[in-house]
């Protein structure tokens, strides 16, 4: 009887001692992974970020907690890559144009107009040796490239119809910080203006710029169509994102955590790239239904005139992004510009 009493007392004492131990000592605090982006939560990138969060926390059994900051709530366009390199944020999905200032200009090749004819042909580039080789170059600037997320093909908006090349002359057109896009609009006779994504709506509303190019999903989610009278369904170029993490953060993770996060990224990538086209189609339908913007479809002849006008961009930008890289992509997608 005394032995049983002693055993019960010892067990009770152990329970008391365990209760006195701080929770942090019983179980390690989760690893915080901040994922910042500049678009709305309902866009392909926004939805992909939330899917990654869900999968990352699930696959790591809560050992990683992902905090998603959409719509430039944490960092703006020009700030986010510097924040990543400094370790203030752990993951980003910047557009292809954003890596030029870091000295990695290869990704800007995907900004070339009329280069990628379809998402299926794009996949041959991003999932093949060309895309993998481009990701590997990020190592030199302290980043790890984990994959490519689609946004989709771009359309043009303005407060005047944009059908013919002459319609662009003298217009102030907003661009991302990309030398390729700067060259593109100069070839069309426009005045390119570099403006952060989060400031585009106000710039259009106040007349700082006359128009811009973007995917329908971005245009609709940011309400740009409410301050632009015309949208030309040109599909003249592509916007995509490169999912990156800071190299010190990634290499400092336990191997099993890296494995599970890679799995989460891969599945989120597949999800984003499956929904992007539908998201853009839905946005076009919603913009048309709003009645605030007139949609313009180009004839084959009009589109060909755009192609001819922008052809010099390839020669001008060949030295910057690499003539061989351009040729390799043209060969991969079997298109000649």
Q: Secondary-structure map with pairings?
A:
Layout: H1 2-20, H2 23-26, E1 31-36, H3 44-59, E2 64-69, H4 77-86, E3 91-92, H5 119-126, H6 129-137, E4 143-153, E5 155-158, E6 172-175, H7 179-187, E7 191-194, H8 200-206, E8 211-214, H9 216-221, E9 230-232, E10 238-246, H10 247-251, H11 255-290, E11 294-296, H12 300-310, H13 312-321, H14 323-333
Helix pairs in contact: 3-11, 7-13, 13-14
Would you mind describing this structure in some detail?
α3 links the parallel β1 and β2. The chain has a single domain, classed as 3-Layer(aba) Sandwich (D-Maltodextrin-Binding Protein, domain 2). It is α/β, with parallel strands linked by helices and 337 residues long. Helix content is 48%, strand content 17%. It starts with a helix and ends with a helix.
**Going by CATH, what is the homologous superfamily?**
Bacterial extracellular solute-binding protein, family 7
Q: Please, what is the average pLDDT?
A: 92
Q: How many domains?
A: 1
Termini Cα gap:
93 Å
Shape: globular
Could you give the count of β-strands? 11
Number of helices: 14
CATH class: Alpha Beta
Overall radius of gyration: 24 Å
Strand content: 15-25%
The CATH topology turns out to be D-Maltodextrin-Binding Protein, domain 2
Main pleated sheet: 6 strands, mixed
Strand order of the largest sheet: 7-6-8-5-9-11
Give the helix level as a range of percent: 40-55%
Q: What ranges have pLDDT less than 50 throughout 5 or more consecutive residues? A: 1-8, 14-18
